[in-house]
Amino acid sequence: MINNLFKRVLFSIPLLLLILPLLIFGKTYLFLITSLLFLSLFYEWNYIFFKKNNLNLLIILLLCILTMFLFFFSQLLSIILSFIIIIYISIINFKYKFPYLYTFIIFYFFISFYSAFYLIINIKNIYIIIYIVFIVISFDTLSYIFGNLIKGVKALPSISPNKTLSGYIFGFVCTFIISFYINLNTINFENTFFYLITLLIIFSAIIGDILESIIKRQLSLKDISNFLPGHGGFFDRFDSLLFVFITVNTAFIFLY
Predict the structure, then answer these.
(1) Could you give phi then psi for residue 147, rounded to 5 degrees?
(2) Domain ranges of the chain
């Protein structure tokens, strides 16, 4: 457990460092890194069902790349193509176990993807994007650290036996203190909006994490993959961020 904790903390550092090029390359870098993240998620999720690299998997990835590319020229065509992809992969995967779960997750990925892209387009201050990603990664990492060090009462024993109330509570408190300092020195949200958006980010991260735990339970998997040391796969690492994209994009549309 300690070895896994060390790997997780150690590997969280380069993940946080990936945010820094935003300050130099701006939104171009952000669109690129977001696209690569979702392509990795699509590949990882489809590989679970196909069990190998084949023509269907290649076609799906190429269609996803085209969807992302089309977004900058015609968002309507991009959305139409995404629905075509969902229908296509639902049909070819219907013979596999859990076809409805598979379709739901692909739909969930696309909703999160479009939410992320719209968020990037509509937010003018690049520090807000950094803030959102940093808070999610910080909360996830701190919750994991405190949960393993303090242990105590299990938060969701039937869904995710490794999650503890101590981890959530200390992760929440420490992340909120960090976010307050960041806001005070860089973003300067109005106080009410700061509290609302920060709470939304943290609770959305928890929901995203729980959702992924339920999915893994259904598939009888500990991790989606082993690509990231100490974290599992891309879905294991960025599960919280996927749901955060959706809720925060909605909040900025109506509140900011």
Answers:
(1) -65, -35
(2) 2-255
